[in-house]
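Students often ask what a holo structure prediction actually looks like on paper. The answer is less mysterious than it sounds. You provide the chain, you provide the ligand, and the output is a string of discrete structure tokens encoding the 3D arrangement of the protein together with 2BA.
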Amino acid sequence: MKLIVAVVQDKDAQRLVEGLVDKGFRSTKLASTGGFLREGNTTILVGTEDHQVSTVLNVVRKTCHSREQLVTPLAPVSGPSDSYVPYPVEVQVGGATVFVLQVERFEKI
Ligand code: 2BA
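The corresponding structure tokens follow.
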């Protein structure tokens, strides 16, 4: 069994969850925050059998799109902030950052 962890943009999350339900997959949606932009994103967890992983990834590919985003990074959390000069940078975010993990044990109690 595998656990698929997909970090996606909030704009794509609902479509992804609906796409997974349509194909009969269970999922969990978590509110998350990107470490770089420090903006909200969504992390979707899907537990599934090994042979279904590619089907899940195809749903992710169909529903999650990459977008250009102009951002002004916040000052670093640590270190001197008085010398920090913020200026906008363009980053490409998404479609999705996906991790596929081996599940050692799965129980529903
Ligand atoms: P953020 O960390 O907020 O990153 C948003 C976007 O900013 C990234 O898009 C990337 O284009 C850019 N970016 C991130 N770190 C950067 C850096 N050090 N220098 C320059 N640009 C940088 P994505 O790569 O599509 O990532 C979207 C979100 O997926 C990330 O949000 C983060 O929440 C998650 N993520 C990406 N890679 C990850 C990883 N290796 N481990 C855990 N989470 C990850």
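Residues 7, 34-37, 41, 91-94, 97 surround 2BA (CB under 6 Å).
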